[in-house]
Specification:
By secondary structure, this protein is an alpha/beta fold. Helix content is 32%, strand content 18%. It is built from twelve helices and 17 strands. The strands form four sheets. The protein has a seven-stranded parallel beta sheet. Strands 1, 2, 3, 5, 6 and 7 form a six-stranded mixed beta sheet that branches. Helix 1 crosses helix 2. The protein starts with a strand and ends in a 7-residue tail after the last strand. 30% of the residues are buried.
Length: 350
Amino acid sequence: MEKSNITYRKISDLKGLSNNPRKITKANLEKLVDSIKINGFWEHRPIALSDRTGELIVLGGHQRLKAAKKLKLKEVPTILYSGLTEDQEKEIILRDNVNNGEWDVSILETDSFFEGVDLDFMGIGILEEKPKKGRKKKEVDSEGEDELIDTDFFRSMLNDTVYESNNELEIPNLLLEHQAGKLIVPFAPWGADSRLRKDVATYHFYVDDYRFESIFKDPIKVLTSGARFVAEPNLSLYDTTPIALGLYNIYRKRWIARYFQECGIGVYADLNVAKKFAKYNRLGIPDGYNAFMTRGYSDRIEYLKSEHQIAKEISGKDIPNLIVYGGGDKIREYCIKQSLVYVEQFINSK
């Protein structure tokens, strides 16, 4: 058996296995696409190829190849194995890429190509019962230890609930007992890169608005991220935004925040709205609440001063627990003078 150095080859020259025993869900494929978009291909995980049949057949890396095609990449890193026997090809196929996707049990059990392979020796537990609906999902924490995440509990709480409200518009109340405390790091924006991590303690949502829509459709992924605290999902509200649309979005962000609290996540109330919506944005935040977050803008320090005043009025404290994200030197100087927490803005590379 001979093995080449890592070589970038055209995707159009590669041929996948017709009986590939690995499959991947749409959600996991999107995660893989996000990972490659941000980090590129890891050169220690090139596509494994064989030329035994005269073609460049992919033995390991089918899911990465799918992701590369979705990203419209032209070339991918590969290693070419020459002189392989069929048994050696099988071993590479079964050992490669056990972290992405799932085993297609029907192929492993019925396709003659894999007949006689000792699956137990290969470390493939295909006979294990899959978690049934109503059971907890096993996750791996940041230190590699198994922990149980009760996704069924989260879903049981995700109903068309009408939460109690302190206002005529019925915008839900946040819970005093589940407000966030001091800022715990790592602190990160909710996005492609951070979702792949399991060590983020606090998420904020001062990101593109489309991410809010994604969270509203499926908030479970925030709960299973391992985060302990979140800022309310923020959706851009401008002075030109119609009031009806603004109220709809304030209702949605406060409903999602309350749902997170019901599931045990501490919440910072988001104050980052246009002045036109400042009075509406206070609805549902109970007196005495003292966990706030906003985004700073170097050319709009008056916005921050107004939001600072709102935080003081609601909390009843001269120095409220207000986290200010970004804005540069001018905003930082204001935060220092007012004893507020300032966090420098950072942007994930794309």
